[in-house]
Amino acid sequence: MTSTTTAPANGRVTTRSAKTRQPINARVGARIKALRMTHGMTQGALGERLGVTFQQIQKYENGTNRVAADRLQAIAGVFGVATNIFFDETTVHSDGKDPVTALFTENIGFRLARAFTSIPEQDIKVKIVRLVESIARTPATGV
Questions:
Q1: Which of 58, 61, 82, 116 could form a disulfide with 29 if both were Cys (CB 3.0 to 4.6 A apart)?
Q2: What is the pLDDT of residues 24-68, one digit of tens each?
Q3: 65 near 119, Cβ under 8 Å?
Q4: What does pTM read for this prediction?
């Protein structure tokens, strides 16, 4: 592992390992992966659309490599979303967990997201979200 030392204009010297995984990079990467998988796209297919290798997409998704602003904009364009989705802090729970990432840790989450995104009618999507939010606020009955 290599490290870099920089001396910015303010005179402070900082050293950081080149392979240090920063939390923001991991969060952005997890959201890229969530979008990619929801759209049923492989890392290779996304890489091809962006002009990079699937290994580079892996590094983005794992948070190993930072995603440059222009590349992030291109990724957002592929999925038809605004770039702020990658940085939205309002979805992080008080325990520090990102529900977007949590949703995609289980196969059922992928199935739910894929099915939901295939529904063309916005009003039905709104009803489904309200139903799920209602269920989430209801204590489990043990059934």
A1: 61
A2: 888 899 889 988 988 889 999 999 999 999 999 999 999 999 999
A3: no
A4: 0.62
